[in-house]
Amino acid sequence: MLFEDTYQTLSSSSQGIYKEKGSKFIARAFPVNTEEEVKTHLLALRKEYHDARHHCYAYCIGFDRSTWRVNDDGEPSGTAGKPIFGQIQSKNLTNVLIVVIRYFGGIKLGIPGLINAYRTAAREAIEKTPIVTRIVQEKYEICFGYPVMNDVMKILKEEKAEIISEEFENICKIRFSIRRTYGTKITSRLQKIPGLTAAFLS
Fold first, then answer.
1. Tens of pLDDT along 103-160?
2. Are 16 and 127 in contact (CB under 8 A)?
3. Which of 34, 62, 79, 127 sits in a 20 to 30 Å window from 107, CA-based?
4. In this structure, what DSSP letter does residue 170 have?
5. Topology (CATH) of 6-134
6. Cβ neighbours of residue 160 under 8 Å, at least 6 residues apart?
7. What is the pLDDT of residue 113?
């Protein structure tokens, strides 16, 4: 959808557990916004579960789901990361990381068994926390002269922009965020104010 500006993600972190033939699969799910957050969670889990055989994971980031990765961490190719990612996709989620930690029980599960175990553990974690809808926000910075302050503030209020920061000096600066759908409209209105410049931040 061209103007889609909402996405679904997990409301909070959660955990799911699946056991099969002595092996224990602990799924940890997290809402994340950046790959740096992913790395932080992975490092923390490797310390917490330092004695586990595998730390397999999948994540998806971005309202357009453009950033994603799967990792089998030593399991046979396609038996861990992909099934985990499949659960993220099946719920139409993004900005989510799911890590499934495996403690090996001594009995091999085979390819179908592994796929089922990682998929089930991931699903358990997802089902333990509510799915929420978030709105995609865009951030802008505008610069303008003090005399047009009232005109600027009037537009920001009418368009329901959220002000992030303000600097009122000779040249005034305001950073604000607004729902993605309304970004073009508010900037076109603001840019009609004499001397005002607008820059897209993110």
1. 998 889 999 999 999 999 999 999 999 999 999 899 999 999 999 999 999 999 999 9
2. yes
3. 127
4. S
5. Ribosomal Protein S5; domain 2 (3.30.230)
6. 178, 179, 182
7. 96
